[in-house]
Amino acid sequence: MFPSLDDSSTLFFPLCIFFALAVPLVWCCRVLLRLRTPSCGCDTCKSYVSGSWSAEFPNLSDWYVHLLCNSPTRTVHVHVLRNVITADPANVEHIIAWNFGNYPKGKAFSDILGDLLGRGIFNVDGVHWKLQRKLASSELGSICVREHAFGIVSAEITDRLVPLLLSSRGEVMDLQEVFRRFSFDTVCKFSFGLDPGCLDLSMPLSSFAQAFDLASRLSAERALAVSPVLWKIMRLFNVGSERKLRQATRLINVLAEQVIKQRRLEMNKNINKNSSDLLSRFIRNIKDDGYLRDIVISFLLAGRDTVASGLTGFFWLLSKNPRVEKCIREESDAVMGTMETGEPSFNQIRDMQYLHAAVHESLRLLPPVQFDSKFSLRNDVLPDGTFISGQTRVTYHPYAMGRMEQIWGPDATEFRPERWLRDSVNGPVFSPESPFKYPVFQGGPRVCLGKEVAVMEMKSVALALIRRFDVRLVDRNQPLRFSPGLTANVSGGLPVIAMEKGNGKCL
Ligand code: HEM
Questions:
Q1: What domains can you pick out in the chain, each with its CATH number?
Q2: Of 89, 206, 222, 265, which one's alpha carbon is 20 to 30 angstroms from that of 234?
Q3: What's the superkingdom here (predicted)?
Q4: Which pLDDT value is given to residue 6?
Q5: 462-472: per-residue pLDDT in tens?
């Protein structure tokens, strides 16, 4: 009746092969069936599928600006993507604040970044998110953490950024790449207490930085795939870009675990027990080293490219608006005196209202996170009457919102920091806008945790460069074309020439 031991062993290998092939095949068919896109003949879908929008618009986001400005509800539905996109502040408030529970990041998003971020705050919903959020917001909210971050940023500016620009001696450099390396150094020091030294161009890029670069790029590329089936199959068989991603994440994990182990050891021996980096702060509350790794890696991803992208956009806008640059110089001279080499204090940076306004204004026009998606759990109706069925991707679009006359008035596309200033007895003061009209840092329960640190970092870098250098674009008419990814990245970088003031002319 039953096969003998010999029979079973002859059956064993064919059965293994059968299961090895059948399981992924059944899985692929299920995913393919689930992902069938609804056929649609509307102009928007036709234009998206054929790519014909690119004949008129330099970036997909610019096409969305056009669609959203022309929609009476400021909301559009791209049926082929099963994606509702909105630029209506009331809708945004409904999605990210009032009905937050119905609009999590969802599984599709967490799958994309899951291998790199694991259960880190940036990539989870529900209980894991709540726990990390509570812990992280109490740490990041404290003034001493912000001062600690300011110390790191100032040191990186004085010891590396300024010397790097001085040593360029008028040669062309890619400012976007400089900012990416700068922000990686600072966010690593802030999160891990670890200095990768990326801005030191004479040193080879550390293996950690290289692996992190590769892993975040390859994870972002997953999001661009029309369907996740391909990368999921490649991951299953560990081939192509998925193999590289696995290798890179493995290296990041090993290095991060080493740092964590070392830090625990030091803390147990009472060495460096007053370290202020996030890792040292979290380590006291979290015992699971894997979880700790996920949390800190999330901070690296959240705080790295965003700041670099914000600074790149800021200097691009400044090059077209010398009047704004002049106003920033005048304000800083009034606060710090006219010595170009003096370093501002934390309080001086905080008090510069015009600079604060200029940073917010540049993020309005060129937000690092151009759009952000959630996935609805249940059917819902947005305040503008748009019906949302369950399991629909719902996107709000800060890039489009920043350019809409309906939101910012007839001068919406102008770079005008003054729109953020109100008169007071002590002179003009910065007046914030509703985060739902300006969701550059998101808003509601999931508002960016690094907002204050990011703005302080951007102000510090902007000030150091404006006071000491003339930074000019190599091509003054360079249009901004963004390469696809999680954060706005200018394709081809931002080639500039930086000359020390009073040391000759640029271009
Ligand atoms: C200009 C720079 C920055 C911008 C525009 C920005 C923007 C954002 C946005 C839009 C989100 C929401 C993402 C989402 O939930 O889908 C976010 C979340 C987050 N940001 Fe930032 N960010 C910046 C810098 C930073 C920095 C420097 C840090 C850390 C030091 C940071 C830490 C975080 C964290 C931890 C989250 C996750 C919050 C949560 O899910 O509860 N960000 N940021």
A1: 20-500 (1.10.630.10)
A2: 206
A3: Eukaryota
A4: 40
A5: 999 999 999 99
SS3 call for 79: helix
Which amino acid is residue 30, in one-letter code?
R
Q: Does ligand 1 come within 6 angstroms of the Cβ of 454?
A: yes
Residues sharing a CB contact under 8 Å with residue 365, sequence separation 6 or more, in sequence order: 313, 317, 402, 403, 413, 415
Q: What is the pLDDT of residues 301-323, one digit of tens each?
A: 888 899 999 999 999 999 999 99
- For the entire predicted model, the pTM comes to 0.90
Name which of 337, 333, 336, 338 is nearest 346 in CA terms.
336
Tell me what pLDDT residue 17 has: 44
Strands (E), 319-456: 372-375, 380-381, 387-388, 393-396, 421-422, 429-430
Query: Can you say how many angstroms the Cα of residue 114 is from the centroid of all Cα atoms in its chain?
Result: 16
Does residue 496's CB lie within 6 angstroms of at least one atom of ligand 1?
no
**SS3 state of residue 86:** strand
* pLDDT tens-digit readout, 160-189: 999 999 999 889 999 999 999 999 999 999
Report the nearest atom of ligand 1 relative to the CA of 368. 5
**Residue 141: predicted pLDDT:** 79
Give the other-Cβ count within 10 Å of 151's Cβ.
Answer: 14
Query: Partners of 86 in the beta sheet?
Result: 75, 396
> Is 91 in contact with 394 (CB distance < 8 Å)?
no
Query: Is any ligand 1 atom within 6 A of the Cβ of residue 307?
Result: yes
